[in-house]
Amino acid sequence: MRIEFFGTSHGVPSDIRYCNCIMLESDGSRYLFDVGAPAADLMTRKGYPFSSLKAVFITHLHGDHIGGLPNLLDLSNWYYRDSAYRVLLPEERGVTLLQQYIEVTSALPLREALALSSFEAGEIYRDEHITVRAVEVAHSPTVKSFGFLVECEGKRIYFTGDMCHDLHDFPTFLYENEVDLLITELAHFPVSLLFEKLATCKAKRICLNHVYPVGKIDEALARRAELTGELFAACDNDIILL
Question: How much is the pTM?
Answer without folding.
Answer: 0.97
